Amino acid sequence: MILFLGSGVSLASGLPSVMTITEQLLEGAYCYDPADSGFFCAAGDEQGRRVKALDDEQHLLRILGKIDKHYLDEAAPYVSGTSFKRSGSIYRSMTSYEDLFQMCTQIKQNSLGLTEDAMTGAFVDKVESEAEALLDGDCIDARLIALYHLASRARGSSSGLWPSISKPTGSTVWTWWSSWPVMRA
Fold first, then answer.
1. Fewer CB within a 10 Å sphere, N or C end of the chain?
2. How far apart are CA 110 and CA 177, in angstroms?
3. What is the pLDDT of residues 37-88, one digit of tens each?
4. How far apart are CA 148 and CA 135, in angstroms?
């Protein structure tokens, strides 16, 4: 049986909050097993698998979070009397794992030529500049290609980690990057 539930049921049903998932994603010790393309908590691996730590992917996600926080805090300047003020973002106050996924998606779409606006290009250039130490390449083109690959891995690792982060008893949870978890009983 598959139930489509709104995000409001998460906490009441014992699932972690959006911010708990985000913190786990950014700070947890996760690894990737290339043999089965699975993601898991490094502390819980007792099977002796060949694993790759997700340090670079998590570092990129933290950079994206920092860029987004600046946006949230500094967005929408306006004049009030004789001073400038900022409203900040109207609809969100913090960066969630969903926002990080969407930023990785924008980078990926830019790499495929699927964006046609200057803002996405400027965003990707900003990320490349902030993440330069993570990226291989002597020129901007090589670093952008490295960024595209890293963002794609970070996007995939983020979605693959959700079942590892939320383990309610008696059910398995899958999600896609929206506020609609899918529970399978």
1. N
2. 19
3. 555 555 555 555 555 667 888 999 999 999 998 888 887 778 888 888 777 6
4. 10
Section 128-137 average pLDDT: 94
Note whether 181 and 173 are within 8 A (CB). yes
- Whether residue 154 contacts residue 104, with contact meaning beta carbons closer than 8 Å, is answered with yes
Candidates 126, 20, 16; CA nearest to 71 is 126
Alpha carbons 82 and 163: distance in angstroms, whole number: 52
Structure letter (DSSP) for residue 134:
G
- Render 109-121 in DSSP notation, one character per residue: HHHTT----HHHH
CB-based contacts of 13-20 (< 8 A; 24+ apart in sequence): 13/168, 13/183, 14/168, 14/169, 15/166, 15/168, 15/173, 15/181, 16/165, 16/166, 18/96, 18/97, 18/98, 18/179, 19/94, 19/96, 20/165
Strands 77-80 vs 83-86: parallel, antiparallel or unpaired: antiparallel
Q: State how far Cα 34 lies from the chain centre.
A: 20
pLDDT at 52: 62
pTM of the complete model? 0.73
